[in-house]
Amino acid sequence: MRKQPDIQREGHMDLGFVDEVAAIPGGEKIVDCIQCGTCSGSCPTSFLMEDSPRSLIYKVRAGLKKEVLQSPDIWLCTSCYLCYVRCPKNIKVTDIMYALKRLSCKDSPIQRKGYHLAKSFMKVVNKYGRNQETELLLRFFLRANPIGLIRNAFIGLNLFIRGRMPIFPNKIKQRKQFRAIVARAETLSN
Amino acid sequence: MALQKEYLYYPGCSLHSSATAYDDSSRAVLSALGSKVVEIDDWNCCGATAYMAIKEMTAFTISARNLAIAEKKGDHVVAPCSGCYVGLSKANNYIKEFPEVQKKVNTALAEGGLSYNGTVHVRHVMDLFVHDLGADELKKFIKKPLKDLKVGCYYGCQIVRPKNEIDSPEYPTTMEKLMEACGATPIDFVMKAFCCGGAILGTEEAIGVRLIKNLMQSAKKNGAEILVTPCPLCQMNLDAYQRRAAKKYGMKFDIPVLYFTQLIGLAMGIAPKKLGIGKEIVSAKSVLKQFL
Questions:
Q1: B157 and A159 in contact by Cβ < 8 A?
Q2: Does the complex come out with an ipTM higher than 0.85?
Q3: Which end of chain A is more exposed for a tag (fewer CB within 10 A), N or C?
Q4: What is the pTM of this model?
Q5: Chain B contact for A90, CB < 8 A?
Q6: CB under 8 Å to B234, separation ≥6 — which residues?
């Protein structure tokens, strides 16, 4: 039997999705995309993606919100900005990937490892005002990747011996002021 | 060309933990070149890649807290870490380009009694060597030329992209000129501004290890004895994971990875200990033995 094509009907589409993504500063350029694929060809991790950056942009414009936000591929963006500098239509592709990451934190029930790393990073920074690499790695690996903790224990030890993994956190002095600024900024998010 | 008498310095979190060698060598070299480094008072995280993935406006705001504090003291902020350089300059550019971003950032900063007018110029430490000092001027300070040392200059991503005032976003060549000035022989390799995987080594190790393999293979094929980089995360990834990559793909890599400031310092005759040489996992001792 012939495979039925996977047809999405207009009713399944969230046509406001593209506006949510385009709400980032300068994000309105997403509608200029000509689907040339320069971004996907430049991407260092697209060889493993089911939905490359080009395809993600296409699906955003088609309103396939759920499919896009649940895709593990948005978390494979390493933020190397090669797509960004090569895009012939000057679309800030890397920033769009950031926007998709943020929207997926809000709307998708599936939490990827990249999400946990970012979230742990934010928690540590909000606590001390600075990143504390040792605590960040412990938090992240215990939460999302316990096997990674064992796999990387030897590297951790090597760094520790060389004085590259301090145990005590490096804090800022005005933590109260910092947290007040963060709290106010969060109410202003777009 | 000459360096300014004084620069505001934003070390960033890595330079206080895993990349102290970069901090030490940057300070030692700048001071030997006659420039004073003034650390920004009570600086905080730059709102790097990972923070940006969760909260954009908050990331811009915490970045701007640093710029607001710096603005009171001067107008050139130097960040040695490429991640910080992009974090700070991205926030800076967005604040300048989009008035609504500036308004929101300042509303939040007001909560801590700060405001930012957008007058700071964010610069990478490599930018100082390239544009303020220049390779020709650097040559005058070289006391122990790194003769016949084959150096691969690995830029990584975030120093040359997205926007920068330093070099070509795809095929940069400035670090090679600095290494030439130090008497070394820079080798060319095509992957020099390609991604090392960044934070992906923690989340999807197999992908990161493959990227590292590609990089190291390209550097080795072109004859690099040692790699230099201007980024703490690149240094960490290439240094800590090259042996794992070699094992997985049946190859052999034994290429030490240093910060470019460490080699410049060495050529200027600064003691290796002051430059943090010896803190790397793949030891640089045998490659550098005639210069140590």
A1: no
A2: yes
A3: N
A4: 0.94
A5: no
A6: B82, B154, B156, B196, B257
